[in-house]
């Protein structure tokens, strides 16, 4: 019993995990969530498909067999006990009972039987050879059905679970009859031994269908590969609907489906939504998720090896791959899902103005604090892969995002899925565009324009030091134009004695800010940009631009992409299941509730009255109602004695 309870507890814990943790997801999702170490441990334990894991199935098999044997052994005695009145009770055994009393003679067995019947007892009168008469009574004997129902419920529920646990699939894989495929991408490419027929007893698979597209198979996760499950019908997604809360979180989503029966060609149209599935041919279609279905995307593209401020126009489609040739170097752009609305934590610490070293630290490391969850608009995730197969992942947001007091165009980069994004922040100008920053970048790449900006900033310097200032400012701006803060910091560490480096860093930072202010003014005039008078907002923009310029020198791609527009195409994530064991689970749950009700609310009680030798022995017993008997037995004794007095009143 203790072992069975322990196993049931283990199954309960596993069921909680299977409910909380999404099951049968792509391995990459678990890798991102748990990291490379724990994702492998959890995969080995079968946590990602709990209900079909070997140990879960083995426990259910054991419980079915052991509980079945228990019922086989105990049900016949239970049934005999339910029918029995225990009419073999003797005087000595009745007197030894905890609740026993001797009554005066004068009460007939018929009257006593009638009294007990009124109290809800079923009675049986037995005349013995010694002349005594035993009146045996019972009520609540049906309570023992509670044990039978509860144990039978366990068998029925576990049997239903075994039917829906892909046990036959596991057996087929062990025997080599079924072989998961880990190479094929499209359903038509799967080998025959990786395709499940329509007669498959139970399955749970997923498929994503874009608007206007159809599918007649679902994909099943099996160990480290996939299987294709053929369906008796074809499902077409006519339209996908989604509503959002004010925060941007999904409120409700639904799919308008057209389903064509493969057998007779008949069609039906049905809308399904979350918690409102559709069942056909014993297969239930659930609205499980939604995703991008291959949206048309427009980008602005800046070649970072070219200082031009005007971007190229690039068109692409999400969930597709495109070649990208830059000079003699060949790349591949791999676009992932497009997301039209994002509610994310995009809070970042403000940039510190404490000299060059502080700015360098801000560029190299970004730590998120004081989380703020905000709807920040459309985004696209893509990867740029070189000829050697190495890739860097990027996440770009279409709309400028507010950080502290200003707005930025954000692009995150990471080289591994378990790493956080490092954010490049392109500041917007007073018109909310990136034009001024890109113009400033082009300006800094031009030697002639840089010297003109230095000359403007040197005009306010005293005549006797103007030439030295011009030379120092030109060198500082040239170093910054080449590599941003990082290059300037490297110059200080290599050319300035260590004891003077901190002092010179502050000096270079002040000089750089002054020259960059003149460069910004020259940029506005040179490219006929809207005038921007000196203000606190302009000063912040300049500081942010210097940070962003430094970030671009470290940007791990030869091209900067900025999402500029889109035409969204959605896909619906459908989960299709055939689970004949579900009916058994429901029936087993009903038996379990019924068994618990019988066990806790129907209490067995027995009573005996033995009429012999001029006296009456009255006794009561109960298996689990001892507290009730402490109150009931004296009451029944008093009532019987009172009944005896009332019947013999005339005689006295």
TrEMBL record:
Domain ResB-like, first and last residues per copy: 1-633
TM region(s), chain numbering: 46-71, 145-163, 583-602
Locations listed in the record: Membrane
- Taxonomically, the superkingdom here is Bacteria
| UniProt cross-references to Pfam families, sorted A to Z | ResB
Topological relation to the membrane, as annotated? Multi-pass membrane protein
InterPro entries, A to Z: Cyt_c_bgen_Ccs1/CcsB/ResB, ResB-like_domain
Keywords, alphabetical: Cytochrome c-type biogenesis, Membrane, Transmembrane, Transmembrane helix
Protein's name in the database: Cytochrome c biogenesis protein ResB
